[in-house]
Amino acid sequence: MKSVIQSAKRLIVKVGSSLVTNDGKGLDTAAIAKWAAQIAQLRRLGKEVVLVSSGAIAEGMQRLGFEKRPTEIHELQACAAVGQMGLAHIYETSFRPHDVRTAQVLLTHADLADRERYLNARSTLFTLLRLGVVPIINENDTVVTDEIKFGDNDTLGALVANLIEADALVILTDQKGLYTADPRKYPDAQFVHEAKAGDSALEAMAGGAGTGIGRGGMLTKILAAKRAATSGAHTVIAWGREEDALLRLASGEAIGTQLTAQTAQLTARKQWMADHLQTAGKVVLDLGAVQKLTSEGKSLLPIGVVEIGGEFGRGDVITCVDPQGRAVARGISNYSSSDARRIMRRPSAEILSILGFVEEPELIHRDNLVLL
Ligand SMILES: Nc1ncnc2c1ncn2[C@@H]1O[C@H](COP(=O)(O)OP(=O)(O)O)[C@@H](O)[C@H]1O
Ligand SMILES: N[C@@H](CCC(=O)OP(=O)(O)O)C(=O)O
């Protein structure tokens, strides 16, 4: 069996609290330096990597002198705010020797459910990747409570995989992967090398967190794999202290548990666009634009739009119709209906002078467009 990571171009790597903070003893500088060196190498191999890192609460507890995990949510939030400073600092300094810049991105699940914020987060992450930066993502614990209660960076990793259409999600944890039962409680449990992401039998194998530091346990990882698979991303669960785990995966070595997505990436995304989103408005295209979209696979530029129907916001899904009113495509609009009315029929180079800002040169980027 070959690792799916070998052919993956865009990867999310998620590291759990127990790994990052050495089981709550404080940031594990040596381990973080090793992941940074590997991620820098992956970039040189042409892969784009986004890191989702837990550990803010564990590090904050350590810095503030809490011996036990506080039970009050606002104290946990305070710990996260303090600990996040440590995470940001250590990642920036660990990547610096490799000439790689890092960026701090704090998100909530609600941010990714809101279409406008979803689109904003997506554009920012793509821009950071294009600029060669490694985004370091964590939950924005100050403004949420549910995620803190359940400890859900595994889910966040999957949501980010969906968001930027990653090819794979690598979840590094304190076990070699998934076993048929929690190996801490059942030493005879068998290792699972490979399975289908979303197979419900896996959920029965997965137990809760193994230490007081980690939160989600294996179940959130299995569910994250299921979610990542909806946009075609494969998941690998591996031991974060395995020597050169990321580089070995990238060279094709099948370490850890590989949970393969059953749907092809493009199909999954199109399915999502077609099934899950109601359209908020409509744009009428001229024949040239219809041709560009349907025959040439191009994005929709404002110049090809002759009429706008309905009211919609940036991030809403709109229908594109041909001059006869037949629906030809559906996609996520980069501009609100009122802005779109001002820039339609105009070249993208004029957007700045008309609106005073430019979101994107396209009204709908082809990645956010599905032909009907
Ligand atoms: N079937 C299983 N296979 C492997 N580990 C399991 C399983 N069920 C529960 N676990 C527990 O899940 C833990 C990893 O989850 P967690 O503590 O949340 O780590 P992290 O901080 O990396 O997210 C392991 O240490 C292990 O004790
Ligand atoms: N935002 C929290 C993440 C909590 C969490 O999901 O932890 P883990 O199960 O170790 O990935 C923190 O940084 O402490």
What report would you give on this structure?
- It is found in: Cytoplasm.
- The chain has 372 residues and is α/β, with parallel strands linked by helices.
- Helix content is 40%, strand content 19%.
- The protein has 15 helices and 13 strands.
- The strands form two sheets. Strands 3-4-2-1-5-7-8-6 form an eight-stranded mixed β-sheet, with helices on both faces.
- α8 packs parallel to α10.
- The longest helix is centred in the first third of the chain and has 23 residues, at 73-95.
- The protein is globular.
- The structure holds adenosine-5'-diphosphate and the ligand N[C@@H](CCC(=O)OP(=O)(O)O)C(=O)O.
- The site of adenosine-5'-diphosphate has 24 residues, from α1 and α10.
The count of β-strands is: 13
User: What ions, cofactors and ligands are bound?
Assistant: adenosine-5'-diphosphate, ligand VHF
| CATH topology term of the largest domain | Carbamate kinase
Largest sheet: 8 strands, mixed
Beta-strand content estimate: 15-25%
Q: How do the helices and strands follow one another from N- to C-terminus?
A: EHHEHHEHHEHHEEHHEHEHEHEEEHHE
Helix content bin:
25-40%
User: pLDDT below 50 for ≥5 consecutive residues: which ranges?
Assistant: none
